[in-house]
Predict the 3D structure of the following.
Amino acid sequence: MNERQATDTRWVTCVTRIRDERDQTAFARLFAHFAPRVKAFLMKSGADAALAEECAQEVMATVWRKAHLFDPERASVATWIFTIARNRRIDALRKQRHPEPEDLTWGPEHEPDQAETLALQQESEQLGRALQALPEAQRVLIERAYFGELSHREIAAETGLPLGTIKSRIRLALERLRQEMT
Amino acid sequence: MTTPIIHHLTDDLLMAHASGSLPEAFGLVVATHVSLCDECRARLAGYEAVGGAVLEDADPGVAMAEDSLAATLRLIADMPEEARIAAPEPAAPVFPMPLRDYVGGDADTVQWRALGGGVRQAVLPTARDATVRLLYIPAGMAMPDHGHGGMELTLVLQGAFEDAGGRYGRGDVEVAGEDLDHTPVAAPGPDCICLAATDAPLKFHGLLPRLAQPFIGI
């Protein structure tokens, strides 16, 4: 594995080790990176520090418990953890559920395709760089939407972010998955 | 399995669902449509990837409590192992999983209430900032002519309906705003079952439905 791959897929490797070996060292590395970000995300969404700490711990415990559901061909680890944190936020702050689509899972023998996994992780990082490169007012508006500060009527999906590539790659992954299911 | 779907969700709705900003009632329609539509599933995942980027950039100046990792490992040790065996699927279900969750079963378990003319409804339990209901409309039957005070999402699960916007079959979703006045008619064939969410009461134009409105709760 060259150095570039090490950066792009190190979190994927951590989740795989948690899934396969219940590896606490891998979990500690994920925790050190993501737990403070989840806590910060929840505080920006309106939780106080104590509630954000409690929820961040629960989110990270869910990461451990649901490691087998993570699909690196369709999401980065940051994206997957974001969805868990978002659902916890809606439950804790709005006392509502976040209805989730039916799970689509690969067959039991499926091994994630390494090239597809790497490409998806790299595209997720590019999306992050594109977000940082946006004019500040635009970036702040997107962040406010994801911190839950905007109502659905205030949200405009015209983000200025290049979403076409990542969407097409996920669409192809879904087609391969459907073929494997039949 | 997916069927060819013509009428999809808007980007605004998908981003609002990805960011967790939609009322639960609308979220249920979005999740149910996405269960049937891989195109919208991929678009939704794109907007969730934006959430991943926002999380990655969230202020790292925030620190976790000192014993946080140990406390989390204790939480994990106390959790029951996740059952990895999925509940048995009904054969060829009419309702995708998220909807079965709210109904407590497939189409044959719905507790319908008659609205007259063979039309039936069942309001599903969600948070009150918007409402979502199942509607059963016999083939060939028209829904009362109505406009909207707010937004209405209508997803077809069985049969089809037609209105000024075209024909809507299984998996198709109609996104109606305040400006749309429409008279959906259930198409010939199997009776039509729809999942419809609104964030304001519908406004009926005919006298009779308007009188009936407070009673039927539509």
In short: Chain B has a mean pLDDT of 86.
